Design the sequence.
């Protein structure tokens, strides 16, 4: 009788102990063989400042049709009224060179020195088409924007003020949260009749600049 009682108590205890051991072994098997030690690497990005105004200067080359290429310089003021759209007011200065006729004729001057002074001013609407990132290193990235721009204004050249349309594109790289560099390409269109019949003059501008948000 005593042996039977011991047997009845010992059997459940052995079964319980075996079940606990099996569950512990299964829990250990569920753990990964190799526990990865991964530390996230922060990426520092240059973001556009919270201010919406941007002021900048630029320098480049302006190909004045029939009057050679010239050094171009100027400034611009930009207002970003959304993440995609912005207004820009710009002014640029250059100087027209000699025409082919003047070079061949010798002492003949089509324009005076003062009339060769070239100045344009315009108001434009821009659209950020492809915002993205440019990685300098694996830990540092610059925010970038590829944008399209178009507008209207006036050009003072050859003794007259001419209504001018312009269209182009640009690439912006944000060096910090408030400083950016730009590379731009523009076409300026106006009517002119200095060398005979009136025609549309197409002047190509290639420039680079630096701007600050405030």
Sequence:
């Amino acid at each position: 009788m005593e042996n039977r009682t011991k047997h009845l108590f010992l059997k459940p205890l052995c079964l319980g102990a075996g079940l606990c051991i099996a569950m512990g072994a299964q829990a250990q098997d569920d753990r990964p063989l190799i526990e990865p030690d991964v530390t996230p690497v922060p990426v520092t990005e240059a973001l556009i400042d919270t201010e919406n105004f941007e002021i900048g200067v630029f320098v480049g080359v302006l190909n004045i049709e029939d009057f050679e290429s010239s050094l171009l310089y100027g400034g611009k003021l930009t207002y970003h009224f959304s993440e995609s759209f912005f207004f820009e007011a710009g002014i640029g200065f250059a100087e027209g060179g000699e025409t082919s006729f003047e070079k061949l004729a010798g002492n003949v001057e089509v324009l005076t020195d003062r009339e060769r002074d070239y100045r344009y001013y315009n108001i434009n609407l821009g659209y950020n088409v492809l915002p993205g990132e440019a990685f300098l290193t694996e830990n540092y990235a610059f925010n970038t924007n590829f944008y399209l721009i178009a507008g209207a204004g006036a050009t003072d050249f050859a003794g007259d003020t001419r209504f001018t349309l312009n269209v182009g594109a640009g690439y912006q790289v944000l060096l910090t949260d408030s400083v950016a560099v730009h590379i731009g390409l523009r076409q300026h269109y106006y009517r002119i009749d200095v060398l005979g019949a009136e025609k549309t003059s197409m002047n190509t501008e290639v420039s680079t600049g630096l701007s600050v948000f405030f």
User: Anything to note?
Assistant: The mean pLDDT is 85. The helical segments are 2-30, 100-105. The chain is about 15% helix and 55% strand.
